[in-house]
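During the second half of the funding period, the structural biology subgroup turned its attention to how the target accommodates small molecules. The most pressing case was 2-Phenylacrylic acid, which had performed well in the primary screen but for which no bound structure existed. We therefore specified the complex as follows and requested a full 3D prediction, including the ligand pose.
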Amino acid sequence: MPDLFTPFDLGDLTLPNRIVMAPMTRNRAPDNVPTELMAEYYRQRATAGLIISEGAAISPQAIGYPGVPGIYSEAQVAGWKRVTDAVHDAGGRMFIQLWHVGRISHPDLQPDGAPPVAPSALRPAGEAMTFEGPKPFVTPRALEIGEIPQIVDQYRQAAVNAKQAGFDGVEIHAANGYLLDQFLRDGTNRRTDAYGGSVENRFRLLGEVVEAVKHIWPEHRIGVRLSPENRFNDIADSNPQVTFEEIVTRLSAITSGYLHVLEGDMTGQSEPAVDYARVRAAYHGPYMVNNGYDLARATDAIASGYADLVSFGRPFIANPDLVERFRRGAPLNEPDEATFYGGGAEGYTDYPFLE
Ligand code: 8OZ
């Protein structure tokens, strides 16, 4: 029976273990350019089977928070190259998460102070994080159908840039209430054109992004992240089970990279309603699970054959040597929430290793 320490092949990329570092926004890239400190943070965590980077904006419009990195400029590519060199020198592997926040932004963060864009002009409840602190979300501008090819091309170009920056692959962020998820779920997508209405239409943008990225990377180097019932960022679907079984079936027909599923609801607003075994059964490729797994649950998920890979977020913030701690059954450091978003080395690169 496989366990967390059994290697796993993503095509020609062998992961030495099944313990993945989940993508996590840390807001430590002033001017949206990755820094030496970020290289050190990821280098410390290179014993992960795979590192997935924090979300990286595919364009200036894709940005939704201060201090998040991008992957659309030369300076960003150069910054990320220092990160991937550090991870590779330490024996690791790293994908970059391609991110567009859609309506989860604010004019303060947008080019020319414009409203953010979304499938439909529906204002999310809650507040955007701006340079001046939290401000209420604004009503986004619904994308014209003629603008969509440009967005797809920004994903394609970001995938090109990712290769130049030395990444081993890319993860397409289609979860957690950001742009691609805003298209997938019917609570945020009220379009009446080819990109709204049926699940087939709501899936269209994600499908086009996957196809565009497939021109740049082989399928096994492309992951997709979904979160069928996460309410984070004020998003919902009227029937997540039906919607996401169909989305996953459609994804399975066009790609064989890993599918990364954030199970449940980070906000605790909704009762668990999705049977993930059925979501899993709809996908033929590698399956990665996430959200609140500990060593015991992760081991069960792998041994039972339900999942191939498990990603860990908070445990990797506080334990750069999480793999070794799991191997030894050693105690874990607790993460300090006060230093999750923004700041410097404190709560970032100063968590202790074993010994
Ligand atoms: C928390 C704070 C900021 C961003 C996600 C990119 O949930 C995020 C995120 C989470 O996917």
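Two results from this model are relevant to the next phase. The mean pLDDT is 98. Residues 319 and 352 are 7 Å apart (CA to CA).
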